[in-house]
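Re: [ENG-882] Designed sequences occasionally contain unexpected residues at chain ends

Forwarding the minimal case from QA. Structure tokens:
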């Protein structure tokens, strides 16, 4: 029953992810609000037994955590998952899909931390994400673009406008290559 519950809420979070940036954003935010206790239950179980699923789910909910002022909660889930993942629960070397999951979790946690007023920690995670994505080569380009954006936000927070502009331009170039309209 737990596995079916987890599968359902992982699918819901991943289906909601693009919708949270679209014209039906409010509908999806309200749906996630109604299910937040079930989402928390699924995340709690996943962190204990399926850490990569926990990271996928928590990462997919970036805009929910941000818009509904639940940044601290999103950060907590992601940091827990990342710590467990790095502790050897998922032994290295990671497969491409495992590295992509970790990279996205690092990116989302970094973004939430910068927005939450912890740019130093956000930069640390975003730099780790960028390194991981660059090691992945072409399949890591989109993640690298998001990491560069996070780092630009951190640089801006530190009032390093030249660095913020340089990082933004690097990320924008990648978003343009990928024809990622939201990123652009």
């Amino acid at each position: 029953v737990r596995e079916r519950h987890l599968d359902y809420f992982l699918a819901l979070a991943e289906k909601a992810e693009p919708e949270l940036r679209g014209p039906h954003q409010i509908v999806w935010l309200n749906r996630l609000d109604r299910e937040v206790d079930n989402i928390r239950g699924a995340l709690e179980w996943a962190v204990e037994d399926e850490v990569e699923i926990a990271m996928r789910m928590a990462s997919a909910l970036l805009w929910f955590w941000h818009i509904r002022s639940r940044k601290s909660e999103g950060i907590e889930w992601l940091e827990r998952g990342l710590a467990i993942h790095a502790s050897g629960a998922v032994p290295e070397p990671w497969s491409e899909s495992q590295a992509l999951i970790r990279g996205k979790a690092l990116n989302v946690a970094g973004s939430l931390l910068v927005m939450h007023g912890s740019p130093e920690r956000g930069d640390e995670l975003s730099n780790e994400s960028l390194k991981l994505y660059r090691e992945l080569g072409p399949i890591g380009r989109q993640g690298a673009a998001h990491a560069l954006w996070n780092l630009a936000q951190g640089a801006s927070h530190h009032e390093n406008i030249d660095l913020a502009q340089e990082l933004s331009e690097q990320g924008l170039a990648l978003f343009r290559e990928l024809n990622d309209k939201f990123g652009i």
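QA comment: On inspection the terminal residues look reasonable. The mean pLDDT is 96. Proposing we downgrade this to a documentation issue.
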